[in-house]
Amino acid sequence: MLERYDGRDLGSTPHIAVLGSSKVGNFVVTVPLLRALRHRFPQAQIDFWGSELTADFETALDPINWRVSWDRTDPLTFSIWPPVLRPAGRQQAT
Questions:
Q1: Is the pLDDT assigned to residue 89 strictly greater than 70?
Q2: How many domains are there within the chain?
Q3: pTM (2 decimals)?
Q4: Which residue range is the domain that position 55 belongs to?
Q5: Which among 29, 86, 85, 88 is positioned nearest to 63, based on CA atoms?
Q6: What are the residues whose beta carbons fall under 8 Å from the beta carbon of 76, sequence distance 6 or more?
Q7: What is the 3-state secondary structure (H, E, C) of the chain?
């Protein structure tokens, strides 16, 4: 279930989704947020909904566990969920 953060305690291993943009500059200003989230929640699963335009940056960024492009041209992007997801920066600790 998707919920807007309202200040409640998220526990030690929250699952956080960050919605990005298709603009490189917007992604650049999102990086400090992603790093702060990783610092605050080191065991969190951080998913990033980004763009094919910034995909290389997203996959190289350590705080992101998984990424998905919302702007893919493939018509089955959201109905075939696993092939769309690609591992990014760090893997979730088990």
A1: no
A2: 1
A3: 0.72
A4: 15-87
A5: 88
A6: none
A7: CCCCCCCCCCCCCCEEEEECCCCHHHHHHHHHHHHHHHHHCCCCEEEEEECCCCHHHHHHCCCCCEEEECCCCCCCCCCCHHHHCEECCCCCCC
